[in-house]
């Protein structure tokens, strides 16, 4: 792996950051990517046409439109920060379900409040023998 990282000016493992995902609210423009399931056709897909040929054509038409730059930037930011994408109500629901806040936490270790009292127990003192 060191050879590949040096040669291609990369860092980390081979599959590092290769596969990412983010939760997307259904009513956003980006939700066009989540209209199918893994095992059976979704009822909305079946409603696109009366036969497979019509459904395929209608489904392909969903992806012909281009997203505006702002929507693409929002999707990229959500993926890079591993954050959900949606409105404030959606964020509140996700925070309530997961018990975690949506905003990215500040980097680093939390600061310990400094106490100017020399008798404080959390400070290093002299070793008494």
What would your notes on this structure say?
The chain has five helices and no strands. The chain is mostly helical. It has a domain at 20-98. The chain is elongated and about 90 Å long.
Keywords:
5 helices; mainly alpha; elongated; 129 residues
Q: Please bin the fraction of helical residues.
A: 25-40%
Give the termini distance in whole angstroms.
52 Å
Query: How large is the share of residues in beta strands?
Result: under 5%
As a whole number of angstroms, the C-alpha radius of gyration is 25 Å
Low-pLDDT regions:
none
Give the structural class: mainly alpha
- Overall, the morphology is elongated
Number-wise, the strands total: 0
Topology, element by element:
Elements: H1 2-7, H2 43-46, H3 52-62, H4 69-80, H5 88-98
Summarize this, please?
This protein is mostly helical and 129 residues long. It is built from five helices and no strands. It has a domain of 79 residues.
